[in-house]
């Protein structure tokens, strides 16, 4: 207990000491800060000072806090979207955010401050714009939904037309984009939308909508992200791809700072338009005072080159406004079409057919003809230069003796002359004959340069013919010529000159008739010569055929005579030579190779040729193969077809062998001299050794022995080389 009392006294003593020292420390600290503040104010007169401490009673600086908007420097650029976000009540922001996030769609619907700024613009600040769009919604959205469903695209892409043109089919931007979907000229050309002085199909609702669906499908095939697709629709696919390559980013909101302002606002505007139209009733945008438009059933009228005035058709249909039908045909630039225009279809309401009841198509088209000629494009005026007289019209030149009128009267006319190329004629000779240049002949007949003319080809030649004198003089017109052009009176032609010109014209006509008659006679002569040549060729061919038939018959008679004489001599030696032939034929039959072979797995022609001592070419020829590929189970012939066919004809072979033996026995005096006599008496042919050939194969192929081949070719062994030429007797 004593220790506790002692500890309490110590704590109280320390508290008392702190209470005495603390006021002195506070006084010193405040005095030091005041002195520093005086020195600082002496250097910088305007500096905010901190308020005095609450415990300081010696010096208190009662200074107000500076205004934050004045003291803090404001940024040079103000983010309007951020400012609008701050002005919007939090409850409204949360409500719009919940509604946007509940959209069940594939198109962009991300909510942020940019989207909220445009939602406020369309629902509060610029309500009239959205109400005008709502009036045209029921007229165009069914058409958009039909084509979007046909191309398997999200249906909510119909709001893209609102962003582009506010559903005005004739809208045109400052850069030239036109129509509901705001196509530029090159893009419209790529999508096959035709444009001319009378029709611009970018303003055709159906054709432009189908083209937009094709373009959106193409962009989605490139980016596979609808936010990037919308950005590319506005900025161009190439620009978006270049930005993605330069920055390495693949998301719209990551690319947001690197895009132009119009493209940055494009996707938020699309989301805000979609929200504003979906929740138009919640924001009070739909009222009974709006003039809603609805699609009507229409009829069509086909035009096939007739001139047509749409205003006349409006009157025939009973509409007070003569331009009422331009609402159904917004692609017509002038509410009319000229004669000779391409086939086109005009649309008008089906309800107006009551006023056209009983009127046929021809009568209606006649009524719709323009009352006056349609305006034509103005002719291009030549530039006016100082010191140079302007060009005059053709009528003025025709009414005067100007240089062009004189050139027209004195210019030669040309006559078309056909010519058929004959053997030996060249381009130079024809040019010299008709007094024209070779270049003109090539140009008139489309002849290639450097190629000779083929006989029988038809050419066209234009021969100049002097013009005849005019039948009657033309009186000069002086009143219609301006003063700037000098007018010379036309000189009167004397009767003598007129008679001379008439005689010259008649002479020219006679010359032309004579040349035409010569050309006709030449053509008839060529036809006769061609017929004679054909007749001679037929007779010559018949004579050749007859001569060949007679030669064959004579050869057949000689062969029969020789065969009869040979048979008489062979019968005598048959008995003596038959035993020898039989003994030679038996070993030959035993040594005959296998006729057929069945291909097994792993076999190929090179291997089979090597194993059976034949060539690949021989196997292909004997088996009539299209290629060197064989299949398992295929049957191949491994020797010549002549030997295979000769197998069942053993008696014939024996007869030939007997005949050969008899002939050799009759000529040769001794067996040792038989090969030498064979070489001299029998004709030989040259055989080139092929790959895989051996002396044995060659002997079997040509029906001779190996010994005869060696002696005939002076060979010391049975080896032969590839490409070596051998003499083979034709036995």
From TrEMBL:
It holds the Pfam family SLT. It comes from the Bacteria. InterPro entries: LysM (IPR018392), LysM_dom_sf (IPR036779), Lysozyme-like_dom_sf (IPR023346), Transglyc_AS (IPR000189), Transglycosylase_SLT_dom_1 (IPR008258). GO terms for biological process: peptidoglycan metabolic process. This is Membrane-bound lytic murein transglycosylase D. One of its GO terms (molecular function) is lytic endotransglycosylase activity. Belongs to the transglycosylase Slt family. SUPFAM superfamilies: LysM domain, Lysozyme-like. Residues 417-461, 595-638, 685-728 form the LysM domain. GO terms for cellular component: membrane.
